[in-house]
């Protein structure tokens, strides 16, 4: 399990924070010479160490119950510090009750290992989180480079920018979509939904062709934040743990925050503004149970409500690593069931009225991409 660490010129650095010297010794023995270790029995000293060094640890092993500043507070302080917030924190604790684990997750711990623990388990998890940490850093550098490139050209002259943004969106899509046509289908579904809504009394004076064009193009940005979500979460075949689900949900804020940085260079650009709405809010629920902001009803931007149903229809119809593809009929049943709960009930009603057109579009775009 430790061969990866050996291949690196720089040994991975582990900071152990535990007020029990015996536990520090045990963890040191488990890690051996494969890691550079730094230890402290004081939470206060640990925070001072982190603040005063540029050689940050690749992972932190943290006990919860300590004198002075406890593990919960340490974790919370680290997560609120821009310099330190992304360092993986693995809690190693004898507390096994659900409330303790949930509280640790809520304040930002990355993983939780219960005592007594197995040597190989600790080694495996430490290496995995270090690997994920460095992969994430690499993705962030790529995103930063992409943002710089986007800023070179004017987004108002959108041909080059659309191609670049679409390429990043396609890169994200390729990680968890077998068909390679998810973005094209979502674009088509959004356009079709909005065209049908424009025929209704409720929306005929709200929606116009320019708005339809903007939402159709910006819909490709809905999952752009997934580029920063680790494969072990994004491509997990089974049910996500609570910690993994919290990580997955972050794609909404990662995506919208990235687009907000771009928008600073192009204030007032409607394409980016709609993209921010969609990226952040396409997982909000009509009844307020969604994320990240728990908006409800008309508080949710129309663009995000439209993308939500387009994305759900395509996700249900398509095969994923964690599920088989559903039939059009089965998908209609599910969407009808969640109308007024997850989805805008009026948009669901319009969708169901024209459902055969969505079925034909799904088949046509999929076949064109095979």
Task: Give the amount of beta strand, in percent.
Answer: 5-15%
H and E order: HEHEHEHEHEHHHHHHHHHHHH
| Number of distinct helices | 17
Mean pLDDT across the residues is: 87
Q: Can you summarize the main beta sheet?
A: 5 strands, parallel
Can you tell me the CATH class of the largest domain? Mainly Alpha
Distance between the termini: 40 Å
Using the coordinates shown, work out and report the CATH topology of the largest domain: Hypothetical protein af1432
Strand element count:
5
Rg for CA atoms? 23 Å
Question: Helical proportion?
Answer: 55-70%
Q: Which CATH architecture of the largest domain would you pick?
A: Orthogonal Bundle
Strand order of the largest sheet: 2-1-3-4-5
Give structural notes:
The chain is α/β, with parallel strands linked by helices and 370 residues long. It has 2 domains: 3-134, Rossmann fold, CATH 3.40.50.2300; 157-369, Hypothetical protein af1432, CATH 1.10.3210. It contains 17 helices and 5 strands. It has helices spanning 3-6, 21-31, 43-51, 71-79, 98-106, 119-152, 158-174, 182-197, 209-218, 231-234, 242-249, 251-265, 270-281, 302-317, 328-338, 345-353, 355-369, and strands at residues 13-17, 36-40, 59-62, 89-93, 111-114. It has a 5-stranded parallel sheet with strand order 2-1-3-4-5, with helices on both faces. Strand 4, helix 5 (98-106) and strand 5 (111-114) form a beta-alpha-beta unit. The chain is elongated. The two termini are 40 Å apart. The relative contact order is 0.08.
């Amino acid at each position: 399990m430790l061969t990866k660490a050996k291949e690196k010129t720089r040994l991975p650095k582990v900071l152990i924070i535990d007020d029990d010297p015996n536990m520090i010794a045990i963890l040191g023995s488990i890690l051996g010479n494969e890691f550079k270790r730094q230890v402290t029995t004081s939470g206060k000293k640990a925070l001072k160490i982190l603040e005063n060094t540029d050689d940050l640890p690749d992972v932190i092993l943290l006990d919860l119950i300590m004198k002075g500043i406890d593990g919960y507070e340490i974790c919370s302080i680290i997560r609120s510090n821009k310099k330190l917030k992304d360092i993986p924190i693995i809690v190693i604790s004898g507390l096994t009750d659900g409330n303790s684990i949930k509280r640790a997750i809520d304040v930002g711990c990355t993983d939780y290992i219960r005592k007594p623990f197995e040597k190989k388990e600790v080694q495996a998890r430490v290496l995995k989180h270090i690997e994920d940490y460095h992969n994430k850093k690499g993705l962030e550098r790529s995103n930063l480079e992409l943002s710089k490139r986007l800023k070179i050209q004017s987004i108002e002259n959108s041909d080059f920018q659309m191609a670049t943004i679409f390429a990043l969106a396609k890169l994200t899509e390729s990680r968890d979509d077998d068909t390679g046509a998810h973005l094209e289908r979502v674009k088509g579904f959004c356009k079709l939904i909005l065209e049908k809504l424009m025929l209704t009394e409720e929306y005929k004076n709200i929606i116009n062709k320019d708005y339809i064009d903007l939402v159709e193009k910006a819909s490709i940005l809905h999952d752009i934040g997934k580029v920063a979500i680790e494969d072990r979460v994004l491509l997990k075949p089974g049910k996500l743990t609570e910690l993994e689900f919290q990580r997955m949900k972050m794609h909404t804020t990662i995506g919208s925050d990235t687009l907000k940085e771009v928008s600073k260079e192009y204030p007032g650009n409607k394409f980016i503004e709609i993209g921010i709405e969609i990226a952040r809010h396409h997982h909000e629920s009509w009844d307020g149970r969604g994320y990240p902001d728990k908006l409800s009803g008309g508080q949710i931007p129309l663009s995000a409500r439209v993308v939500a149903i387009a994305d759900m229809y395509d996700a249900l119809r398509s095969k994923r690593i964690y599920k088989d593809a559903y039939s059009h009929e089965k998908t209609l049943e599910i969407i009808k069931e969640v109308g007024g709960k997850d989805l805008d009930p009026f948009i669901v009603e319009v969708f169901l009225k024209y459902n055969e057109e969505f079925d034909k579009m799904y088949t046509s775009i999929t076949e064109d991409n095979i």
